[in-house]
Amino acid sequence: MIKRYDVIVIGAGPAGLFSALSIKNKNILLLEKNSAPGKKLLISGAGQCNFTNNCSIDEFLKKYGNKGSFLKPALYNFTNKDSIEFFKQFGVDYNIREDNKVFPKSYKAIDILNVLLDKCIENKVEIKYKSIINDIEFDKDNESFNIKTPDILYICKYLIIATGGKSYPQTGSTGDGYIFAKKLGHSIVTLVPALTPVKVEDYKFEELSGISLKNVTITQWKNNKKINNFNGDILFTHKNISGPVIINNSRYIEVGDVLKLNFTDFNNIEDFKKYFEDKIVSSGKLRIKTIIKDLNIPKRLIDIILKLSNVDQDKTCSELNKNGRKKLMEYLSSFPLKVRALGNFNIAMVTKGGVSTKEINSKSMESKIIKNLYFAGEVIDIDGDTGGFNIQAAFSMGKLAGDNINSKLISFDCYK
Asked: Which CATH number does 2-193+350-415 carry?
């Protein structure tokens, strides 16, 4: 059986759904291999769906590493403010937290998904679930795409690939889009898990599981050379380090790197060492743990650092020998953790890598290799920080692809 459409969108996630609802007055098919749409969207933010961020658009563009310039046309075409107003217009009010994360007022991801689906239905988008695609070919003679499934050959003039990445494969994100893109002549940048916890060798902080520290400075070292500097909130779990500062920067961290954690409020390590030395000398009769308490570090963390430094917390400052003092200063301001592994795709929030941005027109999301082929969302080599930036990017890229098709789409007799 052969079926023809003006536009086919592959993938019923945020990018695919937004693409489909944005294309006007044409026959559109959305193919989804799962039995239901938006599976990954539904688990975002533990089901609460932090769907965008309320920071300025200029700040937004800084949240995607070196890909902000590529995303600029999409994000200016459909901004974070536009997302907020879009969902509000269709009945989903919102809450903006102090950290600028934006959630539906109900804190239910299903409310966001329902709006996307309702708008697709209003736009007369045909959605076909459990659609397994065996192959995609570009017919040069007819300038059309042939999409082969076990039962039906679909033919379309415009194709949007919005299949997501490889993260959370249990939601159906198993990298199908990369296979399709490669078959159509596109390059795939190496795929690695991103926005993921980091596992370190000889982890010492099991007892701190659940404790979060604010504004911790972390320096990244490779081959004994400092290569990066991060600042933000860190979370200790029973087996690894996590939290925004780790998750957001995991895409720059590699196995074998050393992360040095500064638990003090001093930005300059040498300033801290001078302060600590002077404090020890001038506080001879005070107990060591009393001096460290002034650094505003959680007691349980202090206990671990003292233990690892082999320092008796009840000793006075005058009893602290040179080696103990040196080790304490190091652990308080530069605690070293060697990276053993990064979380895999099963727990990574997004995929780093994907269809090369060099082969996609950032002003339209159209392929530079094949006319009328579009990409949107995580299938592209783009990944942003946590905080609603990845979902917003998916909305914006999907909207831009749809708008571009609107600007040039002509229905041909054979597709009516």
From this structure: 3.50.50.60
